[in-house]
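Ticket #4471: structure output looks truncated?

Reporter: J.K.
Steps to reproduce: submitted the chain below (335 residues) through the standard prediction queue, then opened the result file.
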Amino acid sequence: MRHFAIVGSGPAGFYTAEALAKAYGDQARIDILDRYPVPYGLIRFGVAPDHQSLKAVSKRYDKVTDEPGVDFIGNVTIGGDVSVEELLALYDGVILAIGAPHDRKLGIPGEDLPGVVGSAEFVGWYNGHPDFADLDPPLDGTHAAVIGNGNVALDCARILSKTQREFEGSDIVGHALQALESSAIRTVTILGRRGPHQIAMTPKELGELGHLEESSPVVEAADFPPVEADDALEPGHRKSINILREFAATPPDASKPKRLVFDFFAKPVRVEGDGKVERIVVERTELDENGAARGRARDMKSRPHWSFPPSDIRRRRWMAFLTMSVGASFKIRAG
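Returned output as attached by the reporter:
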């Protein structure tokens, strides 16, 4: 009989348990350990609350724990309640499947100002993660910046742009729903260091932005390469680019009071503000021969200076997000 401990009850932990159960059958006992009292990790606390179809994968995980010899044990903190050394002495194998729970920083001046929120924190806040229930993000400003060009950036921007009615059928937690209902944010800008062809956004998530009740997407046609360049893209990626091109060709709906602005070729270089976030300074970029972003130091912009007269900027309170999208990872802090 083999005894295995899996630390972490997210997708990686459950798929590992499933594989071990299939490989060893009744010749193994598998314990899935987690510091929280409930399982599913990223599925519970990371997937957007309005994407219930993605969360349905938890039904497959339920079947794993229904297997004889597979148990979930919650409220166990590794390094607190039990050490890795102790686990190694108790089990034949210990698998760490804890993921990456912390945000990465951009390493730019001002990213520690109040109002700069990491994506793990913000996503955890609206998903009911116990570590972030008291986050209280500043939603009293009119503009939020989401830094990053991946699906998590889209999740954050979409959640900030939706009406309360659009959350019907979701499992968003009450404190987040109430705060978002009274939010003053009217413009969400998604900043990306590179261009449309370098996004890590999937068609479904992008397409949703064109059907929001009160927000219209805004994309600059000048940011795209010639349409012929799309032919070299993988089919799914090409579909995402086609959606962005459609956004660029469609004027914003004047009947909708909110805007979701894609600002490509914009590298954040510093966050500024008097005791809190008031603006983000970005450097315009271009692609080098390897497709990486290189700055054009001569072309610096304070974003979003075009939204309000300079005299207004200091009176606005901004919420800033740092996201690192799938390919370029993602998080929220000032990406």
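Triage note (M.O.): checked the attachment and the full token line is present. The chain is about 25% helix and 20% strand.
Status: closed, working as intended.
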